[in-house]
Amino acid sequence: TCVGLRNLLQGLSFSVKYYSKHNHLQTVCLYSKIKHQKCHILDCSGGTCTHRTGPPGSIVPWRFFSCKEGTKIPAKRKQNTSITTSEHLYKDLLKSEQENWNDISKGYKAMTKRIKEKLEELHNKYMFNSGSPRIRFGENVYFEENGCIFLSKADDVDEGNVDILFSTEDLGFSDAFIQRIRISPDQKYMAISLKSDNSEEATCVIMKLGHFPAVEEVIPSVFSFEWATNDVLYYTSQKNLKCQNVFMTTFTNQKHTELVYTEQDARFFVDIYCTKDRRFLTINSNSKTTSEVWLVNCRHPFKLPALVQARTKGLIYHIEHRNDELYILTTYGEPAEYKLMKAPVASSGMENWQLVYALEKKTKLVDLEMFSDHCIMFLKNAGHLYLNVISFVSHSVQSIKLPTWACEFELESHPEHTSSTCYFQLTSPVHPPKRFAYSFKENNLIEQAVQEVPIITNCHTTRLLAKSKDGTSVPITVFHNMNSKELHRKPLLVHVYGAYGIDLNMSFKEEKLMLIEEGWILAYCHVRGGGELGLSWHKDGCQQNKLKGLHDLKACIMLLHELGFSQPKYTALAAASAGGVLAGALCNADPELIRAMVLQAPFVDVLNTMMKTHLPLTIEEQEEWGNPLADEKCMKYIKSYCPYQNIKTQCYPSVFITAYENDQRIPLAGVLRYVQKLRKAVLDHASNTSKKGNWIPSIILDIQANGSHCDSSWEDSLNEVCSLTGWREVVPSIDTSA
C-alpha cells in the first residue's frame, strides 16, 4: 500500500516548509466557507475566458457521468519567431537575476545565521508550547504535529497517551504538509489533503482506520472534500486554479465515482461544506460578489442536489442547518452587510427568508459556528475582537469582548453540533496562539492553561485612526517594545494589503516578535479594499475606488510619523500579492515617505495582466479590478495607479522582492518587467543628479525556483528579516539629505 501511494504521488515536487513542523490543521466552520480559501484569497491576476451557452451551474443525471476525463491534444501550429526570441530574452533575464541574487546573498551569510538561530529560539520557546488545533469527536481527539496525525482519548491527550494514524515521513513524503483532515461520521475513514510548497494543488489520501490504519485511495488535484455518509465522499477537483467540478466517490463493496455538479461560469469557484449537524452537504458556487448553493441530503446522498436560491447578482449567501430550518448568512436586504436569516428547508427561496440577527455598522464577521441550541459569531469592531453568543432557546444575544492584545481568531473543529463548549485560539503578530473556550452551560469564557504559553509582557499595542483624503477614518494597529525610548529614531515596518475584502494577516510569526525585540515598530494599516470594517469597506476600495486605498495608506504613514513613530528615513513598507498594488503605487506617488520596500510575490503589473484573458484568473478578477478590455474608462483608471505603468525618473526607496518562478497567480514576466523598468528609472535619476554623496537605492529581486504564491516559507522569512536588518544597519551612515 505504501509503495502504491508513493507511485501515485510520484512527480509531485515537494519542498520543505519550516512551519510545517507546527502547521495548523484547516478547521472549517460556516464563515470559513464565506472567506475565499487561503490560496484563493490572494488572487491577483486573471482567468480563462471561455464562451459557453449552458446554464451557470449544471446538475447532471448520474447516467450521463463518467469518471474518466478525455485529454485534448493541441493542434500543431507554426513556430512564431517573435515568441521564440521573447522566450530566449526571458530566460536570459531570469538567469541574470538569479546570478545577481546569488552574488548579493553571499554578504548576508553571517546575518542569516544569527537570525536563523534567533528565530529557532523563539519558535522553541513559544510555538512548541502552544499545541495545534484539535478535532474533537465524542471521546476521541484528533490532532496533527510534525506531519503526523494522532488519535487520543479526550482525557489522555495531554498525558501523551496517543496512537499514530498517519505519517507523511513513514510513507516517504516528509516534504509534504497536511492541509486538511475530515473524519467520516463513524470514524472508520479519514480523508487528508497533502500539499507541497511549490504547487497550488493538493492530493487527497483516504485512510481506512482501525488497529492497523492503511491507505485506501489517493485522489490527485483535490481542493475541498466532505463526508456525506460513513462511506460516501464528495470532493471538488482543481485545475489551473479553478474548481468547477464536484465528484462523489463511494467506499462500499462496489466502489464508483460520479460527477455531480459542474460550474460553467469562469467567474465562479466551487467548494463543499457539510452543515454542523451533518444533515446536508452544501455545494457552494461563489464569485467575488455573487453565490449559489445546492443541497445534498446526507440521508439520501445519491439523490440529485436541490437548489436553495438561484444566483442573483450582488447577493451572497451561505447555509447552515438546525431543526429542519436553514440558517442563512447573507447580504440580502439593506444594508448590504452580513445578516443571519432563516427559512424552511422546503421553501428556501429568499422571499421566505426571515431575519434572525443583523450586525452593527462597521462590524466585520470573521467566522460563525453553529451548535444545537446556540450560534457563536466571531466579530471585529474598531480593531477589537468580540464573541456574540446567540441563544435559540432564550432568544438572547450575549456580547463578550476578548483580550485587547488579540488580533486574530483560530477556530478549532467541532464535528459534533451538540457540544456544550466552543474552543478557539487567539493570537496576534507578536503573541503566540493561546487556547480559550466558551462554555454554554457556564455561560462564560474560559482561558485554557493546560499548555502554558509564555505571555509577551514587554510589547505595547496601540490602535489609531488616520483621516484619509476624503475624511474617512482608517484604522491602524501598532506594536512596539514598551521599553523603547525615542520612538522617532526607531525603525518602522508598515504592512498593507487592501484587496478582495481580506483582512491583513495578523497571526503570530516569530520574525515579527524578533523585530520587536530588535527595537522595531510594527504598524498594520487596515485600508479600504480590505475587509476589516465589513463588506462596505471592501466595496469602497475596489474597481473605480482603488485610489482610496492609496490615499488611506499615505494618511496612515503620515499620521505615524506625526505622532513620533519613526520617520521616513527609518520606515520600510511590506506587502504581499495584491498588496503590492498599493505599496508600488505609493512608491511612485510619494517615495519620500519610506526608505525601503519589501514585497513578496507582488502584483505590480495590473493593466497588462487584466488585458490577458488567457490567464487562469482574469475573468474572475474583473469583479475586483474591472474589465479594461470592455471599458476604456476602466483602462484609464487602472493605468492611473498601476505600479508598472507609473514608474518615473525620481529618487526611489530601496526595494527587495521575492518572486516564484512557477507562480500561477502572479506571472513572473510582469515582475521582471517591473524590476527592469524600476532599475532604469533609478539609474537615470542618479545620472541626472550626480551630486557627491547621493544615495542610490538597491533594487533586489530573489527568484525562488520552488515555493508557493500563497504561503511564505522559512527561507522567505529569513530573507525578509535579513533585508530589513541589513537595510537598518546601513541607514545611520547614509546622507539623510539624499
Automatic annotation (TrEMBL):
Per the record, the domain of life is: Eukaryota
Q: Which GO terms describe its biological process?
A: proteolysis
Q: Organism source for this protein?
A: Phaetusa simplex
| Descriptive protein name | Prolyl endopeptidase
Q: What role does this protein play? A: Serine peptidase whose precise substrate specificity remains unclear. Does not cleave peptides after a arginine or lysine residue. Regulates trans-Golgi network morphology and sorting by regulating the membrane binding of the AP-1 complex. May play a role in the regulation of synaptic vesicle exocytosis.
A GO cellular component annotated for this chain's UniProt record is: cytosol
Keyword field:
Cytoplasm, Hydrolase, Protease, Serine protease
Q: Which residues form the Peptidase S9A N-terminal domain?
A: 135-444
Which protein family is it in? Belongs to the peptidase S9A family.
User: Ranges for the Peptidase S9 prolyl oligopeptidase catalytic domain?
Assistant: 507-681
Question: EC top class, in one word?
Answer: hydrolase
Membrane-spanning segments: none
The places in or outside the cell where this protein is found are: Cytoplasm, Cytosol
Any one GO molecular function term:
serine-type endopeptidase activity
Q: What is its EC number?
A: 3.4.21.-
